[in-house]
Amino acid sequence: MKAFWMTALCAAGMGCAFGVLAQTPVQWKLATGYRAESFHTRNLVQFAQDVEAASSGALRIEVHANNTLAKLADIPAAVQGGKVQAGETIMTSLVAEMPIAGADAVPFVVHSYADARRMWGLQRPLIEGHFARKGLKALYAVPWPPQGLFSVAPVKSSADFKGTRMRTYNPATVRIAELLGATPVDVPMVEVNKALAGGQLDSMITSALTGVENQVWGQIRQYYGIDAWFPKNIVFVNQQAFDAVSPQVRQAVAKAAAEAEARGWAMSETIAQDSVAELQRRGVKVERPTAELNADLKRLGERFSREWVRSVGAEANQLFIPYYTQR
Fold first, then answer.
1. pLDDT digits over 176-207, tens only?
2. Domain enclosing residue 58, as ranges
3. What is the CA radius of gyration of the chain?
4. For 138, 224, 275, 299, which has the most beta carbons within 10 A of its beta carbon?
5. How many CB atoms lie within 10 A of CB 74?
6. Beta 26-31 vs 86-90: how paired, if at all?
7. Other Cβ atoms closer than 10 A to 270
8. Together in a domain, 194 and 264
9. What is the pLDDT of residue 23?
């Protein structure tokens, strides 16, 4: 009898979601550590709206930005433990438990958005395997704009770094500085302009977007699009929470995630181009690296790749062997 009345109401246009009577919508909370103004967060909000629309309101996702629900470093554990249903973090923050995520930060391996897409295509199934063992499901990943080289003076080859001071902020950038013959100087981004004005820095590797946000054009004269690496943010959900919704809702989430990934990559590329254009408007000379500098950085990339493969082991070969052989 119940089935009869459900069928009758749906046929009468009384409003059914996915062939059943409308029910109280499922609520997911999605935590991110990034500001509401970040393009990643804006993409998340659009993703949430798309899921709600595609599921006819059966699933609503609340996006909580700027560490308000959980701090960035704690988000994966919060989602895994079921404290929140979904989250976003930068891939490199996962390295301690899944070293394959560190491929994002191996310098001078990925040289373009096309390379980064190919890398993600090979990396994704490996990440998904690790996530599955933790009770997590990857939804999509989007890169930040690539890391470029800012310098107070022209740079034609790696020899130009000798005797200079390079801003560093993690072990990888320290190693880059040392291999280039520069002195590493640990400076938080918010203090870079002060360090530049005081003559404490000669160069740094960061994205054009970060350079624009921090208005580094006072002392900086050069920007080289070396595309050193493309760090990615990944969005994921607790697998039990995902499995608890209907197949139709899961399909809506998967579709919206695919659209968010495509949209996010396009947003990242547009923002990268706009940031470089803003640097030019501010008087920074924008150039591609010389052939000599490019060759020097490529050799460094090969060295970093070998070292990373040795440190990570067989799983790294599952990523890098096809990445290099399919070029």
1. 999 999 999 999 999 999 999 999 999 999 99
2. 25-98+111-144+231-274
3. 23
4. 224
5. 18
6. parallel
7. 12
8. no
9. 65
